[in-house]
Structures are given as C-alpha cells and as structure tokens.
Amino acid sequence: MGSATIFFWLQLPNVTKSNGLTLTIFGIITLIATYNYIRIFNSWSEAFTVASKGGGDYAVQLTGAPFNDGHRYQDWLLTVPLLLIEMILVMKLPQQETVSLIWKLSLASALRVALGYPGEIQDDLSVRWFWWCLAMIPFSYVVFTLAAGLAEATSKQPSPAAASLASAVRYLTMLSWCTYPFVYMVKSVGLAGPAATMYEQVGYVLADVLAMPVFGVLIWGIVAEKSAVEGSGKLLPN
Amino acid sequence: MGSATIFFWLQLPNVTKSNGLTLTIFGIITLIATYNYIRIFNSWSEAFTVASKGGGDYAVQLTGAPFNDGHRYQDWLLTVPLLLIEMILVMKLPQQETVSLIWKLSLASALRVALGYPGEIQDDLSVRWFWWCLAMIPFSYVVFTLAAGLAEATSKQPSPAAASLASAVRYLTMLSWCTYPFVYMVKSVGLAGPAATMYEQVGYVLADVLAMPVFGVLIWGIVAEKSAVEGSGKLLPN
C-alpha cells in the first residue's frame, strides 16, 4: 500500500494536470490504507502471543486483548468513497453528471460500510445477517450504477490501449467489490473462533490488494495513456 | 486530516501564486488538526481499556488516567482563526478591509475558544452555562460578520461554477460553526459519564470533518476554478 502511494505520486510530473488529480487521490487512498494496516498489524500483535511449549515447539495463544477490526472499517469509510470518485473521474462525464454521481455514490458507499460494521462485531448469526442485508441495499445500488456507467465509459476511451485498460478496470471492480460480501459471510455461516477470524482477515487483505494497488496501477495505465494522447509524450513502455 | 494536508499541498503547482497562499494555509490547518488528533487518540487509549470478561465477552473499563480534551482546544485556538483568515482571503476584498477583518475576526474567534475551555472542564452545570454564554458573545459577532461578508463575496465570483462553490462554502460554514455550541451543550443539559463524553467526542469529530477537510475541498474547488479563469489552464476534470 505504501509503495503504491510513492509510485503514484512519483508519476505525477509525467501526466497532464487533470490526470494528475486522479493520481494524487489514488496515492491518498493507499496512504490511508497504509496507516490503517499498521494499526491492524499492531492490534493483531497485541491480541496473540507465541509461547514456547519447550523442546523447540511453539503455540499461538490469546493474550486477552481483543483484536480490533474497527480500523478496517475506518479505512473503508474513507477509501471506498474515494475509489468511487476515482472511477467517476476516469469516466470523464459532463461536469454536472460528475458532481451528482460523486454525491450519490460516495454517500451510498459510506452508508454501506457504516451498516456493515454493527454486524461485523456481532457473534449472534441472525444479527450478522440482518446488517449484511441492510448493507447490501446501498451496495447493490452502487454496483449496478457503476456497471452501467463503466460500460459507457469503456466505449468512449481515446485509444484502443486505453479502452482495453478501461475494460480491465470494469471487470476488476466487479470482481473485487463482490468479494467483500462473501468474506463477510465467513463468520455468518457458523464458522467461529481464531480459524474463522484468520480466514476472514486473509480474504479482506486479498480483496483490498485487488481493489487498491492492483486497481490503482490499471488507473495509472489509463491516465498515462490519456496524457500521451493529449500530447505530453508517450509514457507506457511501447 | 493528514490526507487533506497532502492533497492541498500536492495541488500547489496547479494554481496561481495568490491562490497558492490559500492552499498552503489550508494544508497547515489540517496538519495542526492531524497532530492534535494523534494526541487525542493517545489520551483516549490511555483513559480506557478493554478487558476480557471470559467466554469471548469484553468490557470497556476506565484506567483511572483522565481523558485530556485540552488538545482539542489547543487545536481550535490555532485552526479557528486560520479558517477565518482563509474565508477572508477567498472573499478578495480591498487590502485595507482584508487586514482589518483578519485582526478583528481572528482575535474574536481565539477569544471564543479560550472562553469555552474553562466551561468544558467543569462538571458544575451552572459554571458550564456561564462560560458557554461568555463564549457566545465573540462567536455571534464572528458568525454575523461572516454571514454578511460571504453573501457579498458569493455575488462577486468570476464564474458560475465558482459562485455555486462559494454559495456551498457559505452554507457549510454556517452549518458547521453552529454545530459546536450544541455539541458543547451535551454535557450541560445533565447528561454525564462515559456516554456523554462519547456523544460529545463524536459530535466534535463530525463538526471538525465538515469544518476542515470537507470545507477545504470546497475552497480548493474555488481556487482551482479561479486559477483556470486567470489563465493557468483548466484544472477540474471537464
């Protein structure tokens, strides 16, 4: 995440000004994720300890301090709306439509994250499912709006290279966004204890890596290609 | 807050020099807030602990260390006058009027923060109300002066896009400024204990997010639009 931030910002002098805004915001997204992953790392280290059982064997034990996954939701509350703003900026719609989409999608996606959290910290399965269903309402609205908008944006790209990247962005977005509700379900289907927590954390980390640095590099490819077409010189190798 | 600072400073090369001053100061405002929020976070962590009650249940307990909200007032003592200076600079009044307004409003707003603090750290309700009333005198002076000045500034913007942003700035300022006295009242109406402290903190955080990063992005929109009109090239996408 931190490396992605440095990459996006070091590329800033190489793109045109309006494309630079896209890279600036993407570097901020991965910076917020860097900060929150350090907090998650520290909380994880405080919650578990590795104790010697003698004879060179070790066992992982709970320290009694709870693992605080709230940092993950604090991260998403900021980064998910910012990721949507990035996608809307890349679509290059008329200004009025851009502003209206930014308001609607960023509020809906923040609402989705906020509705997911009360379920995430529950052990009662029916309460978990209740908040999952509520969060799926703004989630579905955002995904369907994006699917339609991105299809249109793909057809409007200025060059075949940009169009093929925009198409990759579209499928990656759908894939990574639809991963989260399934990972959330890990604990809702009755898996419990440290193993469930571990699977859930691995799932969220994989989804975040797709949604942030991998997605960001594709967006960088698009803005680099667009800057080249707009005349600031060729950036992508070949 | 930290992300907002980076955003404003990374946008510096894209605006004209006089508009760059506005962005520089705004990055300093959110930087001061970042520093103080780290101090508040640490003080909060020291004041509360999460202890296991066995069986996977946890309880939040007081550690005995007091939660020090003084960092919030130390933050406001610097950031509130700076926020007012930002608004006065955006108004683009004649130089003499600008200087006189900066002195009057920044001293009045610092006085308001200083008068609020002795009440904030009191448990006696009548003493809380006494300081609240005193702080409302400079507060009202600042809000009425701003309301009048911003109405005039809105009508003087160089383009319809800048005028619509200036109008949003005006309403957001009134909304966020008027939130603080109400949040202060949470404890004055007799709510007490950890719940009251939590509601108060959530209220102040929401008001600060509106008054600093959200407000700052609107100000950035205005200076980007003004720089475009003044000829440094189009900045906002579309």
Automatic annotation (TrEMBL), chains A, B:
Listed GO CC annotations: membrane
Residue stretches spanning the membrane: 20-38, 129-150, 162-183, 203-224
Database matches in PROSITE patterns: BACTERIAL_OPSIN_1
Gene3D superfamilies per UniProt: Rhodopsin 7-helix transmembrane proteins (1.20.1070.10)
Molecular functions per Gene Ontology: monoatomic ion channel activity; photoreceptor activity
GO biological process terms, semicolon-separated: phototransduction
Pfam families (UniProt xref): Bac_rhodopsin (PF01036)
Cited SUPFAM superfamilies: Family A G protein-coupled receptor-like
Statement: the UniProt record of this protein carries the keyword Transmembrane: yes
PANTHER family referenced in this protein's UniProt entry, alphabetically: BACTERIORHODOPSIN _OPSIN, NOPA (EUROFUNG) (PTHR28286:SF2), PTHR28286
Name of this protein: Rhodopsin
